[in-house]
């Protein structure tokens, strides 16, 4: 069988588009991208579209730093077509114990390559990030307490005792990034097929091609599984069993017409558990409809950020309080309480948001699925038959890891030099006793 294309990429979400872009533009390969849906429409636009290099393991920090390097390069080359900023993540706590944990953990994360740790009590020593900053600014983290915290973030609750500002972090438009990469890849010869891969063909343990739902057979030496929620299904076609967890995650966009959250705010994250302030009548009504899940102690990491430009009134927010594993289904299951629950959670951190509780602002709920491994690290590299590669299990960090994951899987495909962190993302890591011991001793997955 002759080869029709160098590489087939299955899945046109942000992961697959990034792989196709990297292989065609950086390495000059003939690439075919296959997906039955329009690009970036299934889950890639359903997250907060953020990025950070603050992660609990050296391998994740290394991969994310590489990915952010590439995002910054593409931002410069495109004239920042996808709105990359560097406003950071601001973790906020009302707990002295959490502050001490940050002080203990920050130097370790710094040693992984996150950047230096700075602590501020006075307002003058802290350097804010300009709202328009793209690939510039500080890295590392700043810990703010006392006057520094009050002066720079006066809209936070008086109960906040500290904040940790991750500086090499921010957000972007996943749709615009994907569109830009797709167009540039097409300029380098990318072929995009609107179809479904129904068979992965192999001979003597080696990939030889795929068959699509349109009846077309395409010969190739390499298939990259970047199929997001469909990755396990595609892997089974190659005789590979991926044990992935699927979590439903919703997000809500509010019209912040009162201007409660400043437009230059970073991503704001409440790092403590909390109990929502329902009155007695509300509690009884919630009990009657079986909503005990919002009546007790609620989990950490209710978070939100400004959405759009300086003239936009929108705020996007997420809070995963369901903690449910389920097979992906569409349309998404609906939680009618989600906008109110998240608004109440945000008002714990940002009291001004409580002004909306008597009448929620205009809001839109959307969401998608986090496809993740047990320890919440991606699968990137060869697996199964020769010529079959993974770029999947991107969990809730697909937008931030896509560029780095694409660079890594492309290096595997062409046999280029691999970075130190490459082995941490191979599927055979689960056969490594040292890796399994590390997992057993670590409770922090890095997930918000």
Folded structure, characterized:
By secondary structure, the chain is of the alpha/beta class. It has two domains: 7-49 and 174-243 and 373-441, FAD/NAD(P)-binding domain; 89-168 and 245-370, 2-Layer Sandwich (D-Amino Acid Oxidase, Chain A, domain 2). Helices cover 28% and strands 23% of the residues. It has ten helices and 20 strands. The protein has helices at residues 14-26, 58-77, 96-114, 146-152, 174-187, 231-237, 280-288, 338-349, 398-414, 433-441; strands spanning 7-10, 31-35, 50-52, 89-93, 117-120, 141-145, 162-166, 169-171, 191-194, 197-203, 206-212, 217-219, 222-225, 245-255, 267-270, 302-307, 314-318, 363-372, 379-382, 388-392. The strands form four sheets. The protein has a nine-stranded mixed sheet with strand order 5-6-7-4-15-16-17-14-18, with helices on both faces. A six-stranded mixed sheet has the order 9-2-1-13-20-19, with helices on both faces. Strands 10-11-12 form a three-stranded antiparallel sheet, with no helix packed on it. Helix 1 links the parallel strand 1 (7-10) and strand 2. Helix 1 (14-26) packs parallel to helix 5 (174-187) and helix 1 packs across helix 9. The longest helix has 20 residues, at 58-77. The radius of gyration is 22 Å and the shape is globular. The relative contact order is 0.18. The model has no long low-confidence stretch (mean pLDDT 94).
